[in-house]
């Protein structure tokens, strides 16, 4: 397992500091309170979505996980789309419902009736790889193009949801919305005192000490 790039850093330490204003706190608090249960998806869809998202973005075992299934469910429940729809793709909600159903059907067809969530990581990855490479299609998908679903929905929604969460911000040293404090030192390889320090080989302990005081 790779070492964290920003050891000791916790973006939530900024919550009650000049780094975040009240609007930012409300947005982050709401995101952290996303219910870890299906509200738009069915329980079966949730099971597929959770396993699927985990293979799209496997997470560190030593960090608080980003609840991708919950965030996806919340996005679909709120029905906040992209503001447009490709003419050859269903709308977001329908695309995800049909895509998850097709993924589950593919898994059961290829693996003796076993659900996608029960497959090994390797078998899940092979199925996802076939989807990404244009190797799936047929009755399970109808007129939904599997490769387009992967490129236009999965690769848009899942990474976007992952990097909307404070646990992901810790991983990349992001301080959250720059309001009201903002950032001043914008030149390369310079950072403000309230930005996380990236660890360099041999200096991990120093970065960790510095990051425990970043607010």
TrEMBL record:
InterPro entries: Gluconate_2DH_su3. Pfam families: Gluconate_2-dh3. It comes from Sphingomonas chungangi. This is Gluconate 2-dehydrogenase subunit 3 family protein.
